[in-house]
Design brief:
alpha/beta; Glutaredoxin; FAD/NAD(P)-binding domain; 3 domains; five-stranded parallel β-sheet; 29% strand
Length: 422
């Protein structure tokens, strides 16, 4: 692998044959997560494809010319022509492999794949999920000198990393940007010594054997497992939602609100997330229509007062969406008046959906005792029904799901495990 500058781009990339170029930055957690994958694949594919790196901050003009706006970003070339899609952010090994394979003949790909050797790594504790609960458990365990690995299919932070502001986390007088709070949590746990394997594909989880297979070739073994896999947004399952997801329908205000400057949006929901994110979205959008199935919001009173005082926001209570249709650059949201059963059509530039969450337990649902809503049941020490398996954070059965309650769960599980291992 070679590091190059803009001056070498023509020679090393444009005239370099088959090339994958990594634009990286310093103090960049996603770049740190990508580095071992990139280096490992360079050893595997390096005889056929050139792997090069470029420090983005020192080569901004070239990066901007290529449309590179974040780090890390991988760009693939074949004889000077850009190939496939640009990969950025939390880049998975499988996505890189898919792009690399496309540059080579099928027969050669099979030869390279035959060289991949399964590996095994062993730890005292595996933490599945890098949200506040998992990160806190990792911090307490590493401070107790317990060999711990944190595995996540995304980058550390969980939902906090995509939350606009957190105003109720103890110790901060001013509201904290969600990405910064989650970044600081992650860095504290990483610097303590917890091993990170993030932005990976989890291909198998055996809770009874305490084994997790990542990226199809590495088996991670441990004595204990903490499940901290969190939740995912609920989908409405109505016509048009699946087709327009990511193409006008969003589930993340922090990710997408900036694209709706001086535009009109519809927000579905009436809980804390919907009401609080509506305030954030109003910093960009010119008009917001809230659609809620009940006759009042369920969000906290302070957030409601702020919303009702916002002149950009209007509300349709006792209405439910029935379908989404795109007409040009406009999305038509059909909503039903639950009292009259009449159908109304709302035109907007985009739709945000905040209607609750579901636990991420698909890979091991059948092994655990769950409550009526599908969340994992635990005892006061965060133990599940399986020996040596704990669960913390939003994925467990409990009354309140907050950053502070997830942190408390992670603390309890880690202390309980530390005492058992000692």
């Amino acid at each position: 692998m070679k590091e190059i500058s803009s001056e070498e781009f023509e020679k090393e990339v444009i005239k370099g044959g088959k090339v994958v170029l990594d634009f990286y930055s310093t103090e960049c957690p996603p770049c740190e997560a990508l580095a071992p994958k990139f280096e490992g694949l360079a050893k595997l594919y390096g005889n056929d494809i050139k792997f090069v790196k470029m420090f983005r901050q020192q080569n901004k003009p070239l990066a901007e010319k290529l449309g590179i706006k974040s780090s890390p970003t991988l760009v693939f070339f074949d004889n000077g022509v850009q190939q496939g899609e640009i990969l950025s952010g939390g880049i998975k090994r499988s996505d890189i492999i898919r792009q690399l394979d496309a540059l080579l003949p099928e027969a050669r790909v099979k030869e390279i794949k035959a060289l991949i050797k399964p590996s095994i790594s062993e730890f005292d504790v595996i933490i599945l999920g890098a949200g506040p609960g998992g990160l806190t458990a990792g911090l307490y365990l590493c401070q107790a000198k317990i060999n711990t690995v944190l595995i996540d299919i995304a980058l550390p932070g969980g939902h906090v990393s995509t939350t606009h502001e957190v105003s109720n986390y103890p110790g901060f007088i001013d509201p904290q940007p969600g990405y910064l709070l989650s970044h600081n949590m992650s860095e504290q746990t990483k610097l303590c010594g917890t091993v990170y394997k993030v932005a990976v594909d989890v291909t198998n989880i055996d809770l009874e054997k305490k084994e997790v297979v990542i990226d199809e070739f590495e088996t991670v073994k441990a004595k204990k497992i903490i499940i901290a896999t969190g939740t995912s947004p609920n989908l409405m399952g109505i016509p048009g939602e699946k087709e327009l997801k990511g193409k006008g329908i969003s589930y993340c205000a922090t990710c997408d609100a900036k694209y709706y400057g001086d535009k009109e949006v519809v927000i579905i929901g009436g809980g804390n997330s919907a009401v609080e994110e509506a305030d954030f979205i109003s910093k960009f959008a010119s008009k917001i229509t809230m659609v809620h199935q009940f006759d009042s919001f369920t969000a906290n009173k302070q957030a409601q007062e702020k919303l009702f005082a916002n002149p950009k926001i209007s509300t349709l209570f006792e209405h439910e969406p029935r379908s989404f249709v795109r007409e040009g650059n406009t999305i038509i949201t059909e909503v039903e008046d639950l009292k009259t059963k009449n159908i109304k059509k709302i035109k907007s530039d985009g739709v945000f959906v905040f209607i609750g969450m579901k636990p991420n337990i698909d890979l091991f649902r059948e092994k655990l005792t769950l409550d009526n809503w599908g969340y994992i049941k635990t005892d006061e020490d965060m133990r599940t029904n399986l020996d040596g398996v704990y669960a913390v954070g939003d994925v467990i059965s409990k009354k309140y799901r907050q950053i502070t309650t997830a942190v408390a769960d992670g603390t309890i599980a880690a202390i309980a495990i530390a005492k058992e291992i000692e």
